[in-house]
Amino acid sequence: MTVLFSPPIAFLIYVLLVAGLAVIGWLLAGDNQSTSDDTTYTTSLYASGEAPPADDDRSVPGYRPFFLIALFFATLHLGVIVLATSSGSPMALLFLFGLFVSLIALILG
After folding, report:
1. Which residues have a Cβ under 8 Å from the Cβ of 8 and sit 6 or more positions away?
2. Cβ contacts of residue 73 below 8 Å, gap of 6+?
3. pTM for the full predicted model
4. For residue 32, which phi and psi values (nearest 5 degrees)?
5. What confidence tens digit (pLDDT) does each residue in 60-79 have?
6. 3-class DSSP state for residue 34?
7. Which site among 13, 56, 73, 100 is 20 to 30 Å from 90 CA-CA?
8. At what angle are helices 64-85 and 90-108 packed, to 10 degrees?
9. 62 by DSSP, 3-state: which?
């Protein structure tokens, strides 16, 4: 039973699972043909029922704020894991200082 936890076997299981879910989703999605005369509503993405402002760049903010927050939390969590597994040496304090500096750099942007 422990052979299932080896990385190649686990990867193969995950690939087969994802492929199966993709096929099920493809079958549930139905055909791509529109039977309505008004294809604008049937082929466009749903955006909460409101049309976005036409000449406003704020409607598409991009991913930069998301990546900054994601990098902040990834750095914070990995730093805490490294500190939790350290033996309390002086190098851990140096690492903690570096962690604070990198988090402040991420906060200030």
Report:
1. none
2. none
3. 0.42
4. -95, 5
5. 567 777 888 888 899 888 88
6. coil
7. 73
8. 170
9. coil
